[in-house]
Description:
This protein is mainly alpha-helical.
Amino acid sequence: xxxxxxxxxxxxxxxxxxxxxxxxxxxxxxxxxxxxxxxxxxxxxxxxxxxxxxxxxxxxxxxxxxxxxxxxxxxxxxxxxxxxxxxxxxxxxxxxxxxxxxxxxxxxxxxxxxxxxxxxxxxxxxxxx
Length: 129
């Protein structure tokens, strides 16, 4: 939303904020929602890039097509385990990096698409020759 639009809404008496403010989410809850949504989007993109239908992905992880549809929108009844399993079954790889830091602990999760992994593998193999 543009600053001008935000100002116009406030001037008209509307409250402006994000979904986390509206729902009263804590910083931890907001972070979890963001991770779940990012992972769900990555699953859909990875599945499409791999040329898989929702049914084919469901068969790979032993679930149903409607469950994959729920996974791809990060429905509340979908666990993080199911999100991770679906992503890896679609050909993606998740990389966790934790860097010790006295000021703040940080864990970085990266979803790496199969196509990018293949190019990284080729580059690594070329260097080792």
